[in-house]
Design goal:
Layout lengths: L1 H20 L4 H25 L1
Length: 51
């Protein structure tokens, strides 16, 4: 499960970078950042719930 979360975090970072590099795709940066934060929070909650 944590492997999937790590993979999704990498994908969201890639989306943020693509949005930052390509002009006019600022919305992609915003969406990527929101998804990154949501995935990181979900992973943190799941990790602490396992303990």
């Amino acid at each position: 499960m944590l492997g999937l979360i790590a993979f999704l975090l990498v994908v969201w970072v890639a989306v943020i970078v693509i949005g930052a590099v390509v002009k006019g795709l600022f919305w992609l940066v915003v969406v990527g950042a929101v998804l990154f934060l949501a995935t990181a929070a979900y992973g943190y909650v799941k990790r602490t719930a396992i303990r």
